[in-house]
Specification:
Strand content of chain A: 35-45%
Low-confidence stretches of chain B: 5-23, 134-143
Number of helices of chain B: 12
Helix content of chain B: 25-40%
Radius of gyration of chain B: 22 Å
CATH class of chain A: Mainly Beta
Structural class of chain B: mainly alpha
Shape of chain B: globular
CATH topology of the largest domain in chain B: Cytochrome Bc1 Complex, Chain D, domain 2
Number of strands of chain B: 2
CATH class of the largest domain in chain B: Mainly Alpha
CATH architecture of chain A: Sandwich
Number of domains of chain A: 1
Order of helices and strands of chain A: HEEHEEEEEEEEEEEEEEEEEE
Strand content of chain B: under 5%
Distance between the termini of chain A: 89 Å
CATH superfamily of chain A: Cupredoxins -  blue copper proteins
Distance between the termini of chain B: 52 Å
Oligomer: heterodimer
CATH architecture of the largest domain in chain B: Orthogonal Bundle
Mean pLDDT of chain B: 89
Number of helices of chain A: 2
Radius of gyration of chain A: 24 Å
Mean pLDDT of chain A: 89
Number of strands of chain A: 20
Low-confidence stretches of chain A: 1-26
Largest sheet of chain A: 5 strands, mixed
CATH topology of chain A: Immunoglobulin-like
Chain lengths: 254, 350
């Protein structure tokens, strides 16, 4: 009897304020696409570097005015290097990818995520490559709220705030797009770029200005380099089985 | 349903109707009093069949803090609507009897009397109804209610107090609901620095930062907050009695995990829409939003600056805000100026 009483009382109290049922969309259906298989013995490499000539860019200081807590995450000044000039006169953060030559082929997107991290009220990396359909993760490593907002044109645009300590946001880009600008609606100085391709043949120039696109099936291609301030450049290349083609892109300063 | 079941069901409904008509309504028997609204709040409407009396209010207060109303005697209404936490719950999700975790943050019951409907999804039409719980399954519920009030009927003190409030007769759930509701109608909080500044003409009641924050809050081209959190000429509810999707409560994949108002209306437009909460006493009722995800008022302001979270049902009033760091801080200062007086006689009875 006491037990029944107790149960009834629980019902009165807890049920009075119990939330409504939840609903979650169903999982997407399985992938049945016929993908192109790459035969490594009939593929080659496109490598090279991105050179910078002329007067170096004037470095821009970041003004954290909209959120003083961001400034506290940095000792001293912090710079926004839209042109990432390396010590050896080369450029980092240039996106290099196969623009023409892979038409009609479909490549299975990787299941490993491509990740962007918000740290010190800044995006790391500033330049990210990803394939359409590959998981995209956004991490907030800061002790404050960010709002990640990819300015997509070819895929559905979205933005979502992410509190300190929140789980990574998980998304996909539906279609290729060079380039998607990533912004943080809360911190207007934050900027990153995501190159979305429908194949794995892209690279980003590193701290020494070099890049390498590997395992590219033999054939004729147009390779494009994309730099956020200095624009695009294209070069034609013919890849042979087991061969290595070396390219050099040169951007001029003022 | 078989014919027999249908007949039985029909008979039960008929009996219930007969029952409710043949018995006098448990209206309060004492002298009706007027609950005075503090500065900044409108006149309080009270239901004709449950006008407030000193006796029902005192009884409701006792019931609000009564742990006997929970299974294991550990919980009262105040466990999740604590007077030391602005009559809300400082935990993200309230913990029920047996450690059961809810999925929504407990809102304040301060000024809930002004809300046209109760709960984040508005599924309860009145404080009376809310205090009694859902009515999804009448048979099951009636039984539960009877058993619940059994405990009170066994307590001579309560029998006396109910008799004093409603006239002699057995304790019923309706009486309990009405008493709690009447107590909740006294939980009005106003006369905040904002009220004294805005309605009381006390120029120094708010800080310069809060005054700037008010301007941003009200300006459709800046904060655009008052389009939903209303400030009127005579009083300011800081709510609109409506439901909006501002994008709170999306999961990592950007999906709505709680459909909110839609669960009641099944109207597509209501997906992910929640009742606009009052912002009065907001500094005392962290964490924020129906899912209690936002820990500080700065987090909330940042969330709005970001334009909320995109989803197919986002309210059209939600846009990215262009506010400087100082303006964001001003908005927080304004929200902090909304802390009003806690009414006397609202804590646990002696």
């Amino acid at each position: 009897m006491i037990k029944r009483l107790a149960a009834a009382a629980t019902f009165l109290l807890a049920a009075a304020c119990s939330p409504a049922p939840e609903t979650k969309p169903a999982d997407p259906t399985a992938d049945s696409t016929a993908y192109t298989e790459i035969d490594p013995s009939r593929a080659g490499v496109v490598t090279g570097k991105v050179v910078f000539t002329g007067k170096g860019p004037v470095r821009q200081k970041v003004d954290f005015a909209e959120d003083p807590n961001c400034a506290k995450l940095h000792k001293g000044e912090f710079f926004n290097d839209a042109i990432a000039l390396n010590n050896n006169g080369t450029l980092a953060n240039v996106f290099i990818y196969v623009k023409v030559g892979l038409e009609g082929k479909k490549f299975r997107p990787p299941t490993t995520p491509a990740t962007i991290t918000q740290k010190g009220c800044w995006f790391e990396p500033r330049m990210l490559g990803i394939e359409a359909g590959q998981p995209f993760h956004a991490i907030n490593a800061d002790p404050l709220t960010h709002n990640i907002h990819p300015r997509t044109a070819n895929s559905r645009e979205w933005n979502q705030s992410q509190d300190a300590g929140a789980d990574p946001l998980i998304r996909k880009f539906a279609r290729a797009e060079i380039m998607v600008r990533i912004k943080c609606n809360i911190h207007p100085w934050m900027k990153a770029w995501v190159g979305v391709t429908e194949h794995p043949f892209y690279a980003i120039s590193g701290n020494d200005g070099t890049f390498a696109i590997k395992n590219l099936p033999a054939g004729k291609y147009t390779i494009e380099a994309w730099q956020e301030e200095l624009g695009t450049q294209q070069q034609e290349v013919t890849v042979t089985a087991q061969g290595t083609e070396t390219l050099s892109f040169t951007y001029k300063g003022e | 349903m078989t014919l027999r079941q249908q007949l039985a069901c029909f008979a039960a409904i008929a009996a219930a109707q007969l029952f409710s008509c043949s018995r006098p309504q448990p209206t309060p028997s004492g002298v009706v009093i007027e609950i005075k609204s503090p500065l900044g709040l409108p006149r309080l409407e009270t239901p004709a069949d449950n006008p407030p009396t000193s006796e029902t209010i005192a009884l409701g207060r006792r019931l609000f803090y009564e742990k006997k109303l929970s299974a294991d005697g550990t919980l009262s209404c105040a466990s999740c609507h604590s007077p030391t936490a602005g009559f809300a719950d400082p935990r993200r999700f309230s913990v029920g009897v047996g450690g059961k975790l809810g999925a929504r943050n407990a809102p304040t019951v301060l000024n809930a009397a002004y809300s046209p409907v109760q709960f984040w999804d508005g599924r309860s039409p009145s404080l009376e109804d809310q205090a009694g719980g859902p009515i999804a399954n009448p048979v099951e519920m009636n039984m539960s209610h009877d058993l619940a009030v059994g405990r009170l009927n066994a307590d001579p003190e309560y029998v006396k107090q109910f008799d004093g409030a409603f006239g002699p007769g057995p304790i019923t759930v309706l009486k309990l609901q009405r008493a709690i509701a009447s107590f909740e109608r006294t939980l009005l909080s106003g006369n905040s620095p904002f009220d004294r500044y805005f309605f009381g003409g006390e120029r120094s009641a708010m800080s310069p930062a809060a005054i700037r924050g008010l301007e941003i809050f009200n300006n459709a081209k800046r904060g655009n907050c008052s389009v939903c959190h209303k400030i009127g000429e005579q009083n300011a509810p800081f709510a609109d009695g409506k439901f909006h999707n501002i994008g709170a409560g999306l999961n990592a994949e950007g999906e709505l995990t709680d459909l909110g108002r839609f669960t009641q209306t099944k109207d597509e437009h209501d997906k992910g829409a929640f009742k606009t909460p009052t912002l009065r006493n907001i500094a005392q009722t962290a964490p924020y939003m129906h899912d209690g995800k936002q820990k500080t008022l700065k987090d909330v302001v940042d969330f709005y600056v970001g334009g909320g979270n995109s989803n197919p049902y986002l309210d059209k009033e939600m846009k990215e805000l262009k506010l400087t760091g100082e303006e964001r801080a001003d908005l927080v200062a304004f929200l902090e100026a909304l802390t009003g007086d806690i009414p006397a006689n609202s804590g646990p009875p002696k």
